[in-house]
Structure formats: C-alpha cells, structure tokens
Automatic annotation (TrEMBL):
Pfam families: UDPG_MGDP_dh, UDPG_MGDP_dh_C, UDPG_MGDP_dh_N. Substrate binds at F149, L150, R151, E152, K209, F254, L255, K256, A257, G258, G262, K328. It comes from Agreia pratensis. Belongs to the UDP-glucose/GDP-mannose dehydrogenase family. GO terms for molecular function: NAD binding; UDP-glucose 6-dehydrogenase activity. Gene3D superfamilies: Cytochrome c1, transmembrane anchor, C-terminal, NAD(P)-binding Rossmann-like Domain. Residues 321-422 form the UDP-glucose/GDP-mannose dehydrogenase C-terminal domain. The active site is at C265 (nucleophile). Pathway: Nucleotide-sugar biosynthesis; UDP-alpha-D-glucuronate biosynthesis; UDP-alpha-D-glucuronate from UDP-alpha-D-glucose: step 1/1. It is an enzyme of class 1 (oxidoreductase). GO terms for biological process: polysaccharide biosynthetic process; UDP-glucuronate biosynthetic process. NAD(+) binds at D30, K35, T85, T121, E152, K268, R335. Its EC number is 1.1.1.22. This is UDP-glucose 6-dehydrogenase.
Length: 438
C-alpha cells in the first residue's frame, strides 16, 4: 500500500521505517529539514536498537522516502499523523498545535476514500474534532484513531509485532467498514500472526492509550509509595514487590521501585489526562494521578537527600559520579529523565557532578552544559566522593565493584534503581545505599 507518515520524530520515524520493512511504499514527511536529510541518508536521528538497519534497507530499496513537502502525501491511501503532543507551557494540558497543523496542511492533498489515521497521543475528543475538519474539506476522506503502544528501546519490534491493535472507527457504518478494511490491509502482517484487535469508537481508542499509560504510571508510583513506607519501617521493598508480584493478578512487571518514571510519555500523559478530565468536569475521577505524579517526583528528591546525607551534609565541591542520564536503558532520551534531574539538582547544590551514560551524553550536554560528562565510566568514577546509579544500563548493573573500588576516593554508592547485587558490593568494601531497603 502507499502510506504517508506525517511527523518523523520518535513515533513517526519508527512507524515509517517499520511499515516500509513490512513491504509498504512509505513517504515520511517532517518540517525539520535536518531530520529529513538524516533519515533519507538512512541515519536514525536518535538511538533506537534495530532502527538504523531497517532505515538503511528500506531507503535503499526506494520503499521508504522522506520529504519536507506535505504535497508528497498526495497519492497515498493512508496518512498517519504521528506528530508530537507536548505539555503546554505553564499548564498540564497537551499542546495540539502540531496535530492541528499537520491535519490542516494535509487536507488539500486528500482524495476520495483516503484514510487519515491519528497515532499521536491526544486528549479524548480530539479525533471527533479532526474528523469534522476532514468531513468539511469535502475530499471524501475518512479518519480513524489507532493509538501506538511502543516502548522506547523496543520500538521497532513493538511496531512490527504489536501486542495488540486498536482501531477507533468513524460512527457512520459504511465509513467504519471502509476504514477498517484499509487498516486491516496496513496491518495484514500483524493480523496474520493473530495479534489481538479491538475495534471501537474514537473516544475509546483515545482513552485506551492514556489510560494504559496512567495505569503503568500508577503501578510504578504504587510500589514507590511502598518504598517510602519501607524506609520508615525497616522493610525491604524489593522483597515486597517479589511477594506481591507472585499473585498473577498483580504481576511483577512495572513493579520495580526506584528513582521513578520519566520519558516522553508517562509524565506528560498523566498530566494531560488530569487536565482533560478537569475540562470535562470529571477532575475528581483521575485526581489520584496528581498523587502518582507527586510520589514519582518525591523519589528523585529522595535520591538527592540520600546523597546529601551520605556526604555528611557537605555537598559543595564534592565530586559525585552519576551513572546514567537517559530516562531508561537502551535509549538516549532525556525527556523528563529522573537521572538527569538528580544530576542537575546535585550540581545546583554545589557538587562537582561528573555524569556518564552509554548513549545520552550528546542529548544531555546540549540541554545541561553546566554538568561535566565522561564517556568512560572509569573517568567518571575517578576520585569520586560518592557514586549515584540512576539508569540501569547493563554497563553499570554488572560493573565489578572490586574494579571500581580503587578508582573512587570514598566507596559509597547509592543504587537509585535497586539493581545492583548489594551483597557483592558490600563484600567488596562499599557502603551500599538503596531505595526502600534497609
Ligand atoms: C511508555 C509505555 O510503556 C508505552 O506503552 C507507551 O507507548 C509510551 O510510554 P516508554 O516511555 O518507552 O513507554 O518507557 P517505559 O518502558 O514504559 O518506562 C517508563 C519509565 O518507567 C522509565 O523511566 C522506567 O525506568 C520507569 N519504570 C518502569 C520504573 O521506574 N519501574 C518499573 O517497574 C518500570
């Protein structure tokens, strides 16, 4: 099929390349010339395992092309909108400027029977508004909502073999049938592998995405709240998590206590959800998400407080080695990263922060040039008064404590992800401090 993907950021670039990998003829469109040039040359503008390989192969075959001109969307049967919906400045609400601009720009190039497919995460009600604009254009095109559940670090795999597909279809039956047929053709490969499919209306499809992220965020903040209780009772939150996760109604996934969640989705999505619920007069229904956010932010503060305590209250001029900058491993994404937040806060207290990360130094140094960065963990650790692990890259998880010991000035480590082997670190001579554990 001929597809266009409007917006070649994280979601759009992965979607465009993955659809081409599945055999579709794809044009990726973005207003950022530098991004388009990089993608057209087969280069991923961010770190995502597997993406460079499929970009290179699909651009080489000509199945994947890139452009800055929306006119190049003409001739595609299905047009995905995959632009960002960032948090508005000074508010919790989502900023729909890019979504609206993408649709307005696309309208002149739509033909009868084309399908516009929303993939961006939007406040519930957006799809109906956009569908009205498509209808008013008189093009005969239709609109569907098809949320995306990809995880950074597994984005290609999650797009090519999703764990479920959700179609939010138009209310009019003939349009719903035609839209479904087009989406089925796009996702033929996944549907052939018996991927579960939920066919629903616009509002439900929009809510599936935000409620899934709200649930995941709540699960993490729940266990982090238990970590706070563990800290004043002498209990061990990692054992608590293991024990409650054994109940398969609860499960272990997303039950790992630590410095909390970050990234481009969970924090902004729960905030946008509360803002939208308030607009709808149902603020109280999701008021708990404000607590989820507050617990999450408190965990960052806890790591900073533990660092200050470990340094005997004297932070000024002390060298702190920060292991990790990305919001999670296998990513160079520093959006709302707890790791970077901790590093910046410690720097703000006068510490000489030297941070290291296998992938995120280039993104972090652009936003926070005041920190010192070292690509080599040994250089970051050299003469450190304190070590703080905040992103659980394998390089840090499996670091040999005996190797690290002679490098530092004071062998104290704060494990902000409860990921190290505490016994091994203590046996090697370290003072080991973690979250929610004695
Ligand atoms: C998330 C959703 O998982 C995905 O379905 C959605 O499409 C986009 O948002 P992503 O932002 O890539 O994906 O990250 P995810 O793997 O969900 O991790 C989010 C954050 O939670 C990370 O900062 C991670 O470190 C943290 N986390 C995760 C925990 O602190 N504890 C856990 O147990 C799990």
């Amino acid at each position: 099929m001929k597809l266009s993907v409007i917006g070649c950021g994280y979601l759009g670039a992965v979607h465009a390349a993955s659809m081409a990998e599945l055999g579709h003829d794809v044009i990726g469109i973005d207003i950022d010339q530098a991004k388009i040039d990089a993608l057209a040359a087969g280069k991923a503008p961010f770190f995502e395992p597997g993406l460079p390989e499929i970009l290179t192969s699909a651009t080489a075959t000509g199945r994947l092309r890139f452009s800055t001109d929306l006119a190049d969307a003409a001739g595609s049967q299905v047009h995905f909108i995959a632009v960002g919906t960032p948090q508005k400045r000074g508010s919790y609400a989502a900023d729909l400027t890019y979504v609206n601009a993408a649709l307005e720009g696309l309208l002149p190039y739509l033909s009868d029977g084309d399908l516009v497919v929303g993939k961006s995460t939007v406040p519930v009600g957006t799809a109906a508004d956009l569908a009205a604009k498509v209808a008013a254009s008189g093009s005969g095109a239709m609109l569907a909502w098809n949320p995306e559940f990809l995880r950074e670090g597994f984005a290609v795999q999650d797009t090519i073999s999703p764990d479920r597909l959700v179609y939010g279809l138009p209310p009019e039956p003939a349009q719903a049938e035609a839209s479904k047929a087009l989406l089925d053709a796009v996702y033929e490969s996944a549907l052939g592998k018996d991927t579960p499919l939920v066919v629903t209306d616009y509002a439900t499809a929009e809510l599936v995405k935000v409620s899934a992220n709200a649930f995941l965020a709540t699960k993490i903040s729940f266990i982090n709240a238990m970590a706070e209780i563990a800290e004043v009772t002498g209990a061990d939150v990692t054992q608590l998590s293991t024990a409650i996760g054994l109940d398969d109604r609860i499960g272990w996934k997303f039950l790992k206590a630590g410095v909390g969640f970050g990234g481009g989705c969970l924090p902004k999505d729960i905030r946008a959800f509360t803002a939208r619920a308030e607009e709808l007069g149902r603020g109280e229904s999701v008021a708990f998400l404000k607590e989820v956010d507050a617990i999450n932010l408190r965990r960052r503060q806890r790591v900073v407080d533990l660092a200050v305590e470990a340094l005997g209250g004297q932070v000024n001029g002390k060298k702190i080695a920060v292991l990790g900058l990305a919001f999670k491993p296998h990513s160079d994404d520093i959006r709302d990263s707890p790791a970077l937040d901790v590093a910046v806060q410690l720097k703000g207290r006068g510490a000489n922060v030297v941070a290291t990360d296998p992938e995120a130094i280039h993104t972090a140094s652009r936003v926070h040039p005041q920190l010192t960065y070292e690509a080599d963990p040994a250089a970051a650790l050299q003469d450190a008064d304190l070590v703080v692990l905040v992103t659980e890259w394998d390089e840090f998880r499996y670091m040999d404590p005996s190797w690290a010991l002679p490098l530092v000035k004071t062998p104290t480590i704060i494990d902000g992800r409860n990921t190290l082997d505490a016994t091994a670190w203590r046996a090697a001579g370290w003072t080991y401090i973690s979250l929610g554990r004695p």
